[in-house]
Amino acid sequence: MSETHEFELVHDIDLPASPEQVWDAIATGPGIDSWFMGRNTVEPGEGGATSMELPGFTAQATVTAWEPGRHFAYRGQAAEDGTFMAFEYLIEGRDGGSTALRLVHSGILGADWEEQYDALRQGNPLYLRTLAQYLEHFAGRHAVPVAAFGPQQADLDTAWAALTRATGLDKDFQEGDAVRLTVDGQQVEGVVDTAVVPGFLGVRTDNALLRFVGGEMIMTGHHVFADVDQAEAERSWTNWLASIY
């Protein structure tokens, strides 16, 4: 029998949006598509079903709390070894039009729980940072999620050195630095909005939140606020990732 561990992570963030805008972002499929992972659906109401479609995998869950504008929670289906994840969002409006959001991420992790826990501890704040960028710059719009995978490299330094070169950045890039790259003959310009070197590069353009994530293999978790074909966009970014090495 594999070893399992309970966990709970709590994250707080102030968001530049109304509670209604935050609710749309965290409790609707198109809203979640615009800052989190995969292609999502949410069946409204307690007991409703949620799904998150990722390449080769679909995560399903059940809504356990549904108070529009205040409280949203869902719990994933448990695996055979008992592992599962649950997400709880608590929303509180603040003076001046901002909103305080608390995320409680809990559940049971499997045998490699330490590695999983560390990834969640570091990754959750980055997703919340993307949520803040979405609400500040693209509120009221919904994105097409674009997931693409680059080729495996020999080591992390090789992978990220190629990415920084291809985006016109120095190896020690920082938030606020200008980004320039060419995808399918189209020039893309933006600014670094999140930098965790190496491991995560967030770029904001006029119509997208571009997210490059990974170690020896870099993948995208882009959110494109334009009328694009998801499959075609994923092919373009897969080719781009392959071309930078």
Automatic annotation (TrEMBL):
Domain Activator of Hsp90 ATPase homologue 1/2-like C-terminal: 17-136
Domain of life of the native organism: Bacteria
Pfam families per UniProt: AHSA1 (PF08327)
Signal sequence annotation: none
Similarity comment: family membership: Belongs to the AHA1 family.
Protein name as catalogued: Uncharacterized protein YndB with AHSA1/START domain
Species whose genome carries this gene: Asanoa ferruginea
